[in-house]
Amino acid sequence: MALLSAALLLCSGLLDTTSSAVGQSCVDESRFQERVIYLGKEELPYRLQCPLDPAQLKGVEETQLTWQKDCQQLLNREGKTYLEFATLRLEDQGNYTCILDGNSTSTFTVHLTVKDSPCSKAPEFKPKGGLTRLWGIVGSAVTLNCSALLHTDPLEEHCDTALQWSKAGQPLTNHTLYPLNTSSWSAGEGQLMVQSLLLVSISELEDFGVYSCSVRNVSSDFSIQNSDIPSHTAAVIAAVVLLLLLGVAAVVYSRCHLNIKLWYKNTYGDYELNDGKLYDAYISYVNNDYDRKFINFILKPHLENQNRYKVQLNDNEILPGAEPSADLVMNMSRSRRLIVLLSYAYLEQDWCTQNFRQGFLHLFELCPRPIVIMLDGQYRRMTSDVKQLLDENQHRLTILTWKHNSVTPASVFWKELSLAMPRRLFFHSNSAGDPQTVLQDDKDPMLTLDPDYLDCRPDLDGAGDVGPRLPVYKNLAGRAPVLPAAPIPAAEPRPSDIDMSDLGSRNYGARSDFYCLVTKEDI
Questions:
Q1: Where in the chain are the domains?
Q2: Predicted model pTM
Q3: Which residues form the signal peptide (predicted)?
Q4: Sheet containing 124-126, strands listed edge to edge, beginning at the edge strand earlier in sequence
Q5: Looking at 146-160, 364-378, 456-470, which range is the least confident one?
Q6: Under CATH, to which class is 279-420 assigned?
């Protein structure tokens, strides 16, 4: 049944071709022939000869010979006994008629059919991919497996299905040195699977290299490499990965370097303890409307509420009748940082207009690295002397610029200010006292942080009969035994055990809670 259907289709195709050819006015069915050409099988350029009788073509140079395709005149083809095709395409098929002028019976038509040959299709190598790498050492053997799927046509002759091996462009014909095993099987209608196994015995270094398996001008390459030689692929990949990681780290650091510095400072930074300072920062500014609002409503609340710093302003605790320079020295000696709001109004002060350089350099004697805050837009209104002085001492200053987008707590301004401020020490207990002074190695009773733990009752036995008096903690269940009071003989006044010479140098401002130091009996 299938053969009958194929025969009917073939006959119908021939009938359609013949009918289409005969139906044209220039085609004489008595002088007509078919010619089939497969793409990729004919040598180029292809020539289609005029099938007229050679006797009629004698002297064709003097006789005019014309060509037509599907009854359409072909230009620039007069006087030639053949048609030449530089390339063959499916569009080139049709009825080609050669006509001798002056003799209407001297015509002949060739119906040219151009088909895509299955044998000209490129093979499909299995597995797909480029160069296949194999490893071996001298004295070992490596098997190369070349498998290709080929398209074939049983009716077409000279269909290439053989796999050819070569090395460095030279064919491997000596199968004694290179044993070869070839097999093939049908993979479907019009498809043929061909497999070739090449055994390469590596006896010397020249056996390493690239081997090619080719069919129909298409090849698949195999590279045999010496495994004794270390490969630099891993090192190159590691270098590329390292460069990528460094690039990512650079991008992350450029965008998050302030957060990284803050984390490192809050984790591994040094505490500024036991320095005798009462405040973390002293703020110097001009008491006008704009600067006062910026200090009291923006800067000071953020430092005290967000970061829990102790801040002192330049209008607090000023000594009566003191000079401004003495106030500055006094306040700076009690603060760890100096913050200057260097606004345009600040520069209009008398000491700034008279000798700003001398006063500015004097700040470095009070604080090694002052923090200067400038308002955005006011820097260009400063004089050239002020700008030059700031540029010269830029490495000794921490210059911050307040902009319109610095209001948010996560802005660059607050991060840079936190980096310039001392590291804070936070305790979870509310009764721990001042974190900055809790670790001070000072045994003076006025600086003892937790006086509630000590018992302030008078000594029951001043003569010391029951031994030295130790602090009695409140959480003890028992109490000291009460002994009868002994008569105290009159004694000469003895000098006080407390050395009063160093009380002037001690800083008792750090204490906000006190307890009884002198009993009624001592009075």
A1: 21-116, 120-226, 279-420, 442-475+500-523
A2: 0.41
A3: 1-20
A4: 124-126, 141-151, 191-201, 180-188
A5: 456-470
A6: alpha beta
